[in-house]
Amino acid sequence: RIQILFEIKTMNKEVEDVTASMFREYLHRNNYKSSLDAFEREVPRHKDSISNRMELAKTLRIIKLVKANRKKEQPLNSMAEMLVADQMSKSGLKSPPEVGIPANEHKAELNSEGLIIKGTFSINKSAPRSRGSLQSRPGDDSTLSLKPVVKNDTQGFQERPMSIKGNVIQNPALQTEDASSQTPPKLNTPVLTSRLMAAVVNREDSALQLPVSSRSTSPSDGRWQTALMKSKYPFTPPKKSNAFIDSLPQKNTNTTTEIECFDLEEQTGVIHSSITLAHRKPPSISKNRKSISIESAIKLREIVFGNARGISFNPEWSKQSFTFNDKPNLRFGLVQQKGGPCGVLAVVQAFIIKKLFQRNGFEFSPSTSTRDHVLSCSLAHIIWQAASSKGGTGIAQVCTNSNRAAFKSSARYREDGITEKIQIEDCKSLSDTEEAVQRSLYHYQNHAGGGCILLLYSAILSRGTDTIVEDFDESRSVLMANHGYCAQEMVNLLAAGYAASNVFNNTIDLGGKVLRGMKDPQQIGFLTLFEYYKNFEVGSYYKNPSTGVWVVCSESHYSILFSTKANYKSDEVTHLVYYDGLGNQDAPYFLTVYPDSGVISTDHDPPIDLCIRTRWKAARVDWNGDEPLL
Question: Which end of the chain has fewer CB atoms at under 10 Å, N or C?
Answer without folding.
Answer: N
